[in-house]
Design a protein that fits this description.
The protein has four helices and no strands. It has one domain.
Length: 67
């Protein structure tokens, strides 16, 4: 089994902001970080909405594909 070591929060934030800055630039990074969180729907309702849009055969083919 492979051991996973998580980086600290400070390092995670520094790397993530660096990636955003390189990809988006300072203004768009600032806009992205200032976006208000979206309204969360109740979990069962959200799950049912996901299921309604789901292509069952495609999902199973992807989930159980042999690699």
């Amino acid at each position: 089994m492979k051991n996973t070591v998580l980086m600290g929060e400070d390092e995670l934030i520094e790397k993530a902001v660096g990636i955003l800055m390189r990809g988006l630039g300072p203004i768009e990074t600032s806009r992205f970080l200032a976006l208000p969180p979206g309204k969360r729907s109740e979990s069962v309702r959200r799950h049912r909405a996901w299921q309604a849009k789901l292509n069952k055969d495609e999902f199973f083919d992807t989930a159980f594909a042999e690699e």
